Amino acid sequence: MTENGQVAVILKVATQLFAALGYDGTSTRQIADAAGLNIATVNYHVGGKRELYLAVMERAHQAERAALEGALARLPGDDPVTGIHRLIDDYVDFCVSHPEVPALWMHRWLSDASDLTELERQYVQPLMAMVTDALRPAVEAGVIDDAIDLEYTMWSVIWCVHGFAKGGVLDEEGHRRGGGDRVALRRFRAHLHLTLHRALALPGDVP
Known about the structure:
Structural class: mainly alpha
Protein name: TetR/AcrR family transcriptional regulator
Keywords: DNA-binding
Pfam family, one: TetR_N
Organism: Nonomuraea guangzhouensis
CATH class of the domain at 57-199: Mainly Alpha
InterPro entries: DNA-bd_HTH_TetR-type_CS, HTH-type_TetR-like_transc_reg, HTH_TetR
């Protein structure tokens, strides 16, 4: 395996383990064993556990940022209501397609890797600002009531989408149904659209 191939395997395995077990619950030995390498090789290519975690979070952020920038670029300027709902669909699609990203952040919500304190400021806050700035014209135009706390509304969407992507919902028999279940995904998407439409007091029916 080439050096680039080894790095790719290490990062892939580390992402899976950090998403499943969290930073605090994952050891470098676990990552090395899962990658089929020894610890010395892992350390040589990516450094220690801290450096590896930072590399994983950077990759996750870049993927999320690219998806968000693409979604914002597609917003129709003449139809903010449709644009808001399209943005929600794009975010759901991203999280369902990349469940490791919400899983990584949900571990941090539970104080995982609490000694690494800059990631939220470095990664989360700029993305939140991108979304609220993009929606601000709708507030100024009166499409969104200016009395609504836009930032907390967006956080509510994040909490819901991350929770669904990571944990899914329970069906009548107690089985978890998540993004891989088409019926559950369709119901969640419809519920989220209706909830957001009402939370923002958007005019008209849900698109």
